[in-house]
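Sample intake sheet
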Amino acid sequence: MRRQTIVLLLVAACSVVLSCGSAKGAAGAKLNPVYVTDKATFQLLPTALREKDIDAVQHITATFGTRAFESDCLLIADGDVLSLTMLNEFGTTVGELNYNNDLVVFNTALFPSAVKAEYIVADVQFCLYRADALQAALEAIGLRLEVSVANDGETRGIFDGEREIIHIEKSADTIAYTNALRGYSYLLQGAF
């Protein structure tokens, strides 16, 4: 009897450990909401709402406070997938993020485990998804999207009341993303 109890406890413990993988949104589970502000939660949009298909190597420079990170990455946004594969200077994969509407998988040693993949997906969506879809989703959570288009690109601002919390500048080969509320920024360079 005691041996059966120990075996059952070991099986239960293994189940708990194995269920704590890096896949989010698995069968029946919901994706983590993205807190754009402390109160406004954004649900990730379907991949079909992107502006256009992208399959290209990009160079990313990211800063958070005084920390900086730089890497090449393969960005794929087509079909039902949004995928980022981070590469080191030798072209070896050092991190992967995949989103397919129901599931986010994030495997990397580059970021602390506290970084939630859904936040990165949301940042990419704010930059590359259709403005009308973003505007509807953001208005539903009490935020506002302002877009201005010029010959050389587009500027997007996400506002909480009168305060611009996210600023995005897009051109044919650069996206500059600044999250003033959370204190981080990205610079993506490549073909968009």
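Comment: Helices lie at 2-18, 117-128, 131-139. The longest helix spans residues 2-18.
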